[in-house]
Amino acid sequence: MLVNLNKILPRAYKMGYAVGAFNTSNLETTQAIIGAAEKLNSPVIIAVSEKAIQYAGIEALSQIIITLAQKISIPVAVHLDHGKTYELCRQCIKNGFTSVMIDASHLPFKENVRLTRQVIIYAHKHNVSVEAEIGRLAGIEDNIEVKTGDALYTDPDEARKFAMATGCDALAIAIGTSHGAYKFKGKPKLRIDILKQIAGQIKNPLVLHGASGVKAIWISRINRCGGDLEQAKGVPDDLIIQAVRNGISKINTDTDLRIAFTAGLREFLHENPTVFDPRKISGHAREMIQQVVADRIKIFGSADQG
Question: Which InterPro entries does the record cross-reference, listed alphabetically (predicted)?
Fold first, then answer.
């Protein structure tokens, strides 16, 4: 069942859980996401980045997601992740996306507001929800690259002014996470104090980006089969749970799915050297992704909320 964010995030905030936004760029990943969500009766957001669109094509990728989503009864939002331009947002809406993110966080405040409002005016005419971002995250993932020195925490007062000025349906904030598999050099830490201040000042559902767990068990499975991700470090489950308890209603996960896919491919090829059927190889990777998505859904608390 296709819905926009306004059909799932307000309830998530009220009931004290978060909805996972899981990135996809192909059939197998999409099947894994929907399979896990359906099995656990959880609402879900399927996210697509600009690079995923460049890789698979917007028409083909949107049709894969929409076709699978329409076959199940749980709420599914089809979401553009980190859209940088009005035109990209418009193209996604024309191709059936139910939600878009306009990420103008790299621009000055007034320019961020202006571009965000432009997207919102168009999107709302088509019953499409809009996520915006204030503050910036460190790290590298797809077309998003922010140097650590520029990774500003979101200012609570600025977040309040931005939410009022734009009327966005969801707001992504920066409280210490980062994109990619190498999120922390030392002990992982999130600024829950900043989150509490923001949640206390605005009613918009809040979003946490760069929140993959990058768990050691999956890293070790890659490394046992020839990989080299020894220093990878993500956001621990306890910090994710704290963030949800203090106002986060949507949590993005991309890196964890990539790691699971890679682990599945490496393991299968290592253990089955004579197999050359891509369906068997990719099918095993799909199973690994589904395990990770299911684990994240349980951590977020959205199971049985569909």
Answer: Aldolase_TIM (IPR013785), Class_II_FBP_aldolase (IPR050246), FBA_II (IPR000771), Fruc_bis_ald_class-2 (IPR011289)
Residue 32 is classified by DSSP as H
pLDDT at 259 over 70: yes
295 carries a ligand binding annotation: no
Residue 212 marked ligand-binding: yes
Residue 117: its H or E element:
helix 109-125
What digits encode the pLDDT tens for the residues 93-105?
999 999 999 999 9
- Tell me the domains of the chain and their CATH numbers: 5-300 (3.20.20.70)
Instruction: Determine the Cα–Cα distance for residues 196 and 78; give it in Å rounded to an integer.
Output: 28
26 assigned ligand-binding residue: no
Q: Is 252 annotated as a binding residue?
A: yes
127 in a labelled binding site: no
Sign of dihedral through CA atoms 146, 147, 152, 158?
negative
pLDDT of 211-240, one tens digit each?
Answer: 888 888 888 898 998 988 877 778 999 999
Three-class SS state of 82: strand
Contacts of 202 (CB under 8 A, 6+ apart): 159, 160, 163, 164, 171
Q: Does 264 show up as a binding residue in the annotation? A: no
Token pair recorded at residue 248: 């986060």
Q: Are 162 and 108 in contact (CB under 8 A)?
A: no
Task: Provide the token pair at 169.
Answer: 């349906």
Alpha helices in 169-215 (DSSP H): 192-201
Task: Please check the confidence at residue 141 and state whether its pLDDT lies above 80.
Answer: no
Q: Does the annotation count 81 as an active-site position?
A: yes
Burial of 225 (0-12, 13-18, 19+ CB in 10 A): middle
Q: With bands split at pLDDT 50, 70 and 90, how would you rate the model's confidence at 136?
A: low
Q: CA nearest 3: which of 199, 209, 160, 169? A: 169
Catalytic residue among 81, 142, 169, 256: 81
- State the residue for tokens 């990539």: 258
Q: Which of 286, 254, 206 has its CA nearest to residue 51?
A: 254
